[in-house]
Amino acid sequence: MRALVFGSTGFIGSEVARLLASEGHEVYGFSRGHAGDAAAKDGLNQISGDVLKPSDIAAAYKAADPHWVIFAAGEKYPAGRSSRSWLELMEKTRVEGVKNVVNALDSAAGVKFITVSGALAYKRPRLYKGEGDELLSKEEDPIDESTWFGRTLSKWEKEVMAKVQSDGLNAVIARMGAVYGWGGQWRQLFFEPMLRHRRVFVPGNGRAQLSYIHVTDAARALIHLLRKGTPGEVYNIVDDEPVSIGLFLNSAASFFKAPHPLYVPLWLTRLALGSSTFSLVKPAFSVSQLVSNAKLKKYEFTFEYPSYESGLKRVRDDALAVREASK
Asked: Residue 40 pLDDT more than 80?
């Protein structure tokens, strides 16, 4: 198969491209930046362009002539203070970007399309206060549009579904849990300092529970749904074991033999990060999102890392391997 990955230098997109190439597919990666030697080593044909420019997308389709299209593009989440204009760019890249990508697709050409979305934006009846809560959100449950992420997610999913309904686009939506691994924001904010045996600071009290997914399983699930997903359907991509942020990061610290994190009150986090970044951070660290993966399993997907502990062991092993290779 020929596959075109939008956002091929990102955390999820790069893993999807790597796995597709390892399976022998002809893979084209689309990104604004230059992927460099790593992309060539992984067997990736790099296309430079911007998802906000329809002419760049048209040129990419002409060059790749893909059977599969994966949309994993998006601006990085800020690690510190950010402006309102940055949030607007993050939303524009996702919403207008996916609109441009699906509008340029020829639905009659038999192309299968999948977009990365989010599973941590379901509407919850209350903020989590430390109580037990075993209710798992399912794909048909409503999205919480009171948050920036929920509003943005709804907008970009609607662009895909509109194309499905109007033109019969063969498309599925993959809602990801908290995607972690030796890369992305988790590496930058938590795992790298832990590798150096440093204490990290975490917003909130650590009691909010989340559904996680290791990046390799996230990428594997995307490829699985390209093969077996039903057009017009939504799938949650999360592992079997929702866990509190505190237990997840305390366990990570133990694997790295680092001090356990220090949990910082949310009001103090707002002072440090400013209102724009805080609007992203607060829901992620204060509202529980326990999500069901029953639908994905019904489609015969199996996990390499079904629990956070097995995934964190992989993170530690990857980190140690990278450090050893750099010596």
From this structure: no
